[in-house]
User: Fold this.
Amino acid sequence: MIPYGHQSVSDDDVAAVVDVLGGEWLTQGPKVEEFEHKLAQKVGADHAVAFSSGTAALHAATSAGGLGPGDVVATSPLSFVASANCIRYVGAEPRFVDIDATTLNMDLAQVPERLDGLVAVHYAGLPIDLSQLHSRPRVIIEDACHALGAATPHGPVGACAQSDMCVFSFHPVKHITTCEGGAVTTNDVGLASSLRRFRNHGIVSTPARGGWSYDVTELGYNYRLSDVHAALGGSQLGELDRFVARRTLLAERYRDLLCGTAIELPPVAPPGFTHAWHIFPVRVDRRRELYDGLRYAGVGVQVHYVPIYQHSIYASTRSDGGFPKTEAAYESLLTLPLWPGMSDLDQDFVVDRLLRIL
Ligand SMILES: *Cc1c(COP(=O)(O)O)cnc(C)c1O
Assistant:
């Protein structure tokens, strides 16, 4: 089966991991610090804080942002469930906002006036244009799990030019991997230290009371990334530009190969923006038939995503006719395989089987 996404792990990556395994530090240590430093530099942020997953990073961001009970936080219904779960983890209320039919990102013109926070998803790797916000909520968090390597007219995604914090995932299908892992970038030193406390049980050291002494000032978690995983991440980060370039080339190739067919292609980045092409979601008629047919033919297509309000635990957020554009998109979306190690031949096979079934 040709997968819809796949990691690209090199001999250098393996060597970097093996090196750490033979050393002194296995859990969070100097490799995490090095990885954070490299990531912050890469995206142009002052701070990067690594986590054990993208979901843990999202949880830390909503917590550090001070969101909690009584707060209303908007997000896109066309996303992975973690984009909304992170709002509920802190007791705040998620408010789904229908997508824009063209970009498939949350339609910022429809964001409610009184809003405490925003979890802005860059669907498929196309940055949402935050300058379209009519009023600024207290906390803006970018869920950039699709968008490492993308850019806006204000700089790279992750530089937090128009947000407080930006969250990345290093799951194997994402742009770089640490197996499991994630990070938050920010330019706010207070948020950075709050994120670091949250990741380590809420612990602050109190050396004045003795070298061993520490206090726990808030409820935190063990959301640390290990040095083994961070070594992989640091090595992978060196390949990011090449990975994104290959994804972009494959996306352009899909456009050429599928142009003039019944398949509706995903939107491209508007002037001043660049797309990170985490996924290549096309729109098709008879989606179910194409999904089953392609899977049977060895093409691991996927659907991104079942709208979050359709999940049972989000039943109370549904409203009649509430999200017509998300509904319409969900009916026809089909993600074609795309990852940096995919060959032109793999891609030709995908296109051939797709056109044959059509
Ligand atoms: C992958 C992803 C996450 C969660 O990342 P994990 O590292 O798997 O926890 C969150 N939001 C979006 C949009 C994602 O694609």
